[in-house]
Amino acid sequence: MGSLPLEAMMPLNPDSFAGESSAVVDFLADYYRNVDKYPVMANTQPGTIRKLLPEAAPELGDSMDRILDDVQRDILPGLTHWQSPSFFAYFPANASTAGFAGEMLSAGLNVVPFVWTASPVATELEQVVVDWMASLLGLPERFHFKGGGGGVLHGSTCEAVVCTLAAARDRALSKLGHEGILKLVVYASDQTHATFQKGASIVGIPPANFRILRTSANSGYGLTATIVQRAIEEDVARGLLPLYLCATVGTTGLGAIDRVRELGHVARRYGTWLHIDAAYAGSAAICPEFQGHLDGAELADSLSMNPHKWFLTNMDCCCLWVANPTTMTDALSTDPEYLKNVGTASKMAETVDYKDWQIALSRRFRAIKLWVVLRRYGAAGMRAHIRRHIQMAEWFEHVVAADERFEVVVPRNFSLVCFRLRPRFMADKAVEALNRDLLAAVNASSRAFMTHFVVDDKFVIRLAVGGSMTEMRHVRAAWELLKEKANDLIAT
Ligand code: PHE
Question: Is there a single domain that holds both residue 365 and residue 472?
Fold first, then answer.
């Protein structure tokens, strides 16, 4: 097949749809079969793809087969392979057969459910799946629709945090007047994700009013009530208003856990909005043995977690729950005539218009994806998925701790292990350089990809277990690789 003549321009032709789409599915099946053979971290020079491609978009279309050949030849070599079983960097971004099927349904149906009328069942399915997820995570009744709260699916935690910050801001400014924005203060720990500060600045919080509170090894780098209370008291004494506190369960750097219940009591005392960011570790809360970390969630105003990390749901999908949806819709609703739902007022009073729960008007049918994942694997399958990775991380933590040249820097909470090479009698500066070299050597080997963090001046290597295809043998191989590179470095 060569280029397509213009008269054949039928971009959604049911007769060729299946063939062309299944060529993509076959391509991906092949990719997954071989993904462990690609260098995990892309070894590509900047500018590579621009050199390979023509200056301008093609004038005539091409066949899907030839396009897939190009993907294989030009695109794949420049990717970092997030689905590689030896991808241990950042956090996992799980793909799965059900997640892909759900994404296909979403992409294929391509509805845009911004108001109820725009696709009633898409809106209502979203309400059902976020309620299902709330139950699976053991969240309090107030985050369920039937408890007066409710959830929504966003693309990322950053969006979720911006929306809740806007809700908290407008709730406060409705009493203070708009000039009051200079008085609003937000609180987070030095381990909180960087997007929190970005979110706060997007909603207009003055940078001088960001309080980044210190954590320490004593609390496993979790934020404690005492330090928050002190910071809030100082601000109140200066006539400022403690607006919003972000607690994290499973921080990005170290997997640390803020004390939700303690922080909740402080937040309640001052009328401060409490958000719980459980982007990564929220998935673990489907297992009863991890639900304790969300204890006190009934004191929070909102909570978010990302099924697109560790919950077998292909990008993108972030669940956000709020206890009082009116605070969100007051801040985010728009009401242009052409979007008004038509129907009886009583019927409409019961419906949700998700455009008022997010930044954009447009939105994807993410609910069907999460629904297919839950239907396909069931709660039991999902728990097995989580526990499998926890066991692998446990094993890894154990072998690192047992090797006297290495140390576990922070005790593991979930499936993230933070460690470093620590030969005895070596100066701190040299230890840092050694670990930087070790990480670089591991990643340059193409056999695994890990990332790092720095805490208390310690350069720490992070091994985040959680890939959909990661098995024990891959974690074992990663450990062998680390030892091999450590030997090379220490010997030289
Ligand atoms: N949010 C993750 C981080 O900050 C990155 C990530 C995004 C991981 C999406 C998985 C999926 O590390």
Answer: no
Q: How far apart are CA 228 and CA 263, in angstroms?
A: 8
Q: Are residues 273 and 358 in the same domain?
A: yes
Q: What are the pocket residues of ligand 1 if the criterion is a CB atom closer than 6 Å to any ligand atom? A: 90-91, 93, 193, 252, 308-309
User: Which residues neighbour 480 within 8 Å (Cβ) at sequence distance 6 or greater?
Assistant: none
Which helix (H) or strand (E) segment holds residue 211: the answer is strand 210-213
Mutate to test the pocket of ligand 1, among 309, 311, 415, 463 (most ligand atoms within 8 A of CB): 309
Q: Kindly give the distance from the C-alpha atom of residue 435 to the centroid of ligand 1, in angstroms, as a whole number.
A: 23
Here the ipTM equals 0.92
Domain enclosing residue 76, as ranges:
6-81
Q: How many domains does the chain have?
A: 3
CA nearest neighbour of 470 among 441, 443, 444, 450? 450
| φ and ψ of 247, to 5 deg | -100, 145
Mean pLDDT by 10 residues, the chain (492 residues): 65 95 98 97 94 96 96 97 98 98 98 95 98 98 97 98 98 96 98 96 98 97 97 98 98 98 98 98 98 98 98 98 97 84 65 96 98 98 98 98 97 98 92 97 98 97 98 98 97 72
How far is ligand 1, taken at its centre, from the CA of residue 187, in Å?
A: 22
Q: Which long-range contacts (CB under 8 A, 24 or more apart) does 378-382 make?
A: 379/136, 379/286, 382/136, 382/283, 382/286, 382/311, 382/312
